[in-house]
Every structure is written in structure tokens, then in C-alpha cells.
Amino acid sequence: MSFLTRNLPLSTAGLLALGVALTSCGESRDSSQPSPTTSVASPASGAGSPGSPSATGEDDDAAGATSFSLSEEQNPPFSVEAVGTYDSPWAVEILPGGQSLLITTRDGTVILRDLDGDRELSLTGVPEPVVAGQGGLGDVVAGPTYDQDGTVYLSWVQAGDTGTGAVIGRATLEDSGDQTALEDLEVIWEQVPKTTGNGHFGHRMAFSPDGEHLFVTSGDRQEMDPAQDLDSSLGKILRLTPDGEPAPGNPFADRGEVAAEVWSYGHRNPLGLAFAPDGTLWSSEMGPQGGDELNRIEEGQNYGWPQASNGSHYGGGDIPDHTDSDEFTGPQAWWNPSVSPAGMIIYDSDLFPDFQGDALIGALSGQALIHVRIDGDRAIDGQIWPMEARIRDIAQAPDGSIWVIEDGSDAQLLRLTPQT
Cα separation of 207 and 209, whole Å? Predict the structure, then answer.
């Protein structure tokens, strides 16, 4: 199969650190265009983080933190091959064995594709999602026993008596070579409560390195306050068993019911979730007007939303910044104005040695690939590369190549390898 190689322009003024100027319609930046912006800040070790840098580049309140700008690179360290085109993709998952991948599309299609492009098939047996606003078919991950039984997990939006909500389903991927299907699909988890509106579902998934726990992001559904309510799964990151039950030993297990699922809370719309090689869990989170975040996720911690954020409400309403003295866990890196972070990975290969152990994050409104360098449990600096398209998700192949899926119609699947 032939590939189209793209060389990306990197000399755009104002892309030292990238984000967008947002309109007042809430989540419109999920489809807006980028504009020049300011900087990223990283707090020092601990729960707090600083006040956000102003549009002039001045730090309003350092709060003991260090600030850094994402450096503009004259040349990217990777070559880009466009290897396929898809409509409204949402997730890409490279399957164990490294010979094929799955792509979900928001309108309800799951595609099995060989990495070399020789075979591409649409799966049968896929659930029919509610497709509206940000809702539709979402994430897909291979189960920890995929090599033995072909188990995969899907997330999608489902209707109920009181509105819509995300669900997680488990199925068996049957691949006969010329036909593929999801069989024995069962829903194992539901977002509670279902509610009106079509935003902030979250529904990104990641298995712990030992395969014992399924972590799920659950957005606040634009309701805000439920993110602080342990009796609601909205605005949380949840730790479940592979069967979808609350994992034993969760921090609020003694409360029972929904609270027993909760691992962390006070989240707005976490759209990326990934484990580092050392087992640390990280999440990229879309904030309000400004205040997008990269968080190190820790057991039982409250990340503050909507009571603390380094951004502002749409329309300009103030939200108290994170500080070292508040009761909340602040982000390790944050963007103001916004980049609209989506899917992410923590890179773990020698193919790109400069990325080892670091976060690679897709930016939607930012139309970029963001590299945040991680030192232990802290974000310390990074780079940004304009990609000329909204980036929805990222995956790493066993050979270390990076696979990126764009967002929207005629979105490209890209393979990134080192520059030669």
C-alpha cells in the first residue's frame, strides 16, 4: 500500500504555546478553530497549582510553582504518513500482537484494520449509540485477556428514562479473516444518573498494567455540581473490576452504591487516560474557558471542579484558582487559553528516546500534538507541533511508531516515525 507523507509547517507565529480564544456557547471549542495563545504552567510537587498566566504572559500568582512555555520546534522529530481516511473517528486501539488496530467512529462503526493496510473490515454486532452533540460511540480497548479470548470493551451513549448517559460494554471480537463481528455484547457499567444535554460524557477507558482494574472517565455532563457529589458518577474517574463492578479497596467503598466505584472526583470532562510505565495514572481534561489540565490521578483525591479551576466560566464568570492552601489537588500542567486536550498516551519505547515516559496529547481546537515531559510525578516542560487538523486520539504500536487519528469528516489516520 502506498502512503502519503506530509511535512508539517512549524513556523506559525504564536505557536510557542497553543490554545484557542473561546466563544460563549459552552463546548463550541470542541469544533472551533485555533488562535495564538500564551503558556502552560506546571505546579511544584504537591496538591496545589498556581493562578493561570494572563493573556499578557504575566503570572498572576506563582503559588510556589514553576511555569514553562511549550517550545516551538523548527522541525518535528517525526515523519508523518497518512495511511487512511475515516468519518468522525473517536478512538484508535492497537490490538495485542501489533498486527491490527480498531477504530471507532462517533456515528457507530467499528473498523478492524491491519497496520499494513492490506485488510480493513467493518464489524457487525456493534451497538447503536445515541449520536448527538458530543455523544455517540466512544472508546475501545482490548481486555487484559484478549490474547486468550478476544475480549474487547466499548463505550457509547445510551438513552434512558431520564435522558442519556455513557455505558461500557464487553464483547468478544471474532475475526475469521474476511468477516469480523462483536459477539455476546453485554453492558457492564452505566453512568449515573442519566441526564439531559449532549455534552461531557468522558467515557475514556484504561486497564491497569496488571489487568486487574478497569479505569473509566466520566464527565460532569455540563451539570458541574455533581462532580463533587460522591453519590453521582458524573465528574469522576472510576475504578472497576473487568466485570464492571466496583473494585475492592476503592477509597469510598464503605459508602456503597455509586460511591464505591469512585477513584477520584472533581473532574469536568476528562478525555484522555493513560498509565505510565511506572504505573502512575495520568488524565488530560478539558477545562472551562481556559484551564485545560493534565492531571496525575491519585486515589481518593478531589481535583476541584467546579469549585476551583485555573480557567473561567463561559461569559467571564470567575472561578477561584487552585492554590497550595486549598483542599483540592491541582493539575500538573494546564493551559489558559485552551487547547482542548483529547486522547493521550504515555510513551514507552526506544524508537523516540526523547519521548520515553512522557505524555503525548492530542489537541482538538489546538490542532496540534503536544509533548509534555514528565519527571517522576511532575510535568516539567514540553513541545508542541501544529498538525493542521484536530487530533482526537493517539496510540503506540509495539515497534514504537505513534498512530494518530484526526477528528471530523475525512479525518486521517497518521503514522509517525522518526525523521531520517
Answer: 6
